[in-house]
Every structure is written in structure tokens, then in C-alpha cells.
Amino acid sequence: MDQLTGASLHTYTDAERAQGIAESENREDEAARRAGVPSLDLPGLWQDLIDRDQFRSLAVELATSGHMPYGLADVDYTRTPGFLILEPGGKPGVARVARLLEPWGAVRPGVRREATAQEGQLFDKDLEDYARVLEAPGRTVDIMEDGVRVTFDPVPTGP
């Protein structure tokens, strides 16, 4: 209950949320031990993919080539776009690299009325840059309207 307004507030500080956070942390710790690394926390990578080496390598390649990963605490993502690597549902061996800039998120800025044509061009340029960095043997890289798709061949079988 909010003391000032009397409104009932619902937060994520409940036992279910705490359990989910603990399970996530434990999974990260276990994956770090298996990989023999001190931490698997990696900005620019969806949390469910932290223990999958092929996805981690994409995030590292983009970050080391100068692209900003999404999820850093000190970056203003209303001014600086960040990449986020996801796995499209039901498609093993496929990664989707989204370019995120607030307030549009991963929506291509050109389809939004408040976005300028220049922002749409920057979006396209960033996707082309991502694709160029990620091209490598064993990968097919395609530029889509809303991101870059990376298909691994052969499909990786483990972390």
C-alpha cells in the first residue's frame, strides 16, 4: 500500500520473483564453472543464451569491433543504439541480432512517425555493419528488416 496515495502497489519483490532470480544466478554460476570462466554475464546477449558458446562469440565479436552491447547500466540508449542477440523460438542454430534504441526498441525507426528518415538510415547502416562483422565460415548471415539473422551450419549441439 502506497503511504502517500493509498493505492495498492504490486511489485516483483515476491517469493516467485526471488526464486526466479536465484535459479537464473545458479544457472549462470554452473555454466561459468563448466566453461572455466569467472563470469558469464555478457551485455548484448539474452540471458537464456549465456551458456551457449556460439551466441557468446557473436556478442564478443560485435563488442570488440566497436558496437555497443545493450544492457550496460551507464549507457543512454536513447542516444546510442545497442545490439541484443536473441534466439528465435523454435529455430535451433539461428541467432537474431536486434538493434535497440529507445524509445523504439527493436522496431525499425522508419515505420514510426516520430522517427526521422536519418534514423531509419542509421538503423540500416548498423544492421549492415553487424552483418559484415558476423560473416564467417560456418555461418550464413542475412539482413532482415528488423535485425540480422545468423544461421549456424552445422547446427551447434552444446554449449
Describe, in short, the structure shown.
The chain has helices at residues 15-35, 53-64, 117-134; strands at 82-86, 94-100, 139-143, 148-152. The protein is an alpha+beta fold and 159 residues long.
What would your notes on this structure say?
- By secondary structure, the protein is α+β, with helices and mostly antiparallel strands.
- Strands 1-2-4-3 form a 4-stranded antiparallel beta sheet, covered by helices on one side.
- Strand 3 and strand 4 form a beta hairpin.
- The longest helix has 21 residues.
- It is globular and about 45 Å long.
- The termini are far apart.
- The N terminus is likely disordered.
Core attributes:
159 residues
Number of strands: 4
Rg from Cα = 18 Å
The global form is globular
Main beta-sheet annotation: 4 strands, antiparallel
Average pLDDT over all residues: 79
Strand content bin:
5-15%
Helix content: 25-40%
N→C terminal distance: 45 Å
Write the topology of this structure.
Elements: H1 15-35, H2 53-64, E1 82-86, E2 94-100, H3 117-134, E3 139-143, E4 148-152
Antiparallel strand pairs: 1-2, 2-4, 3-4
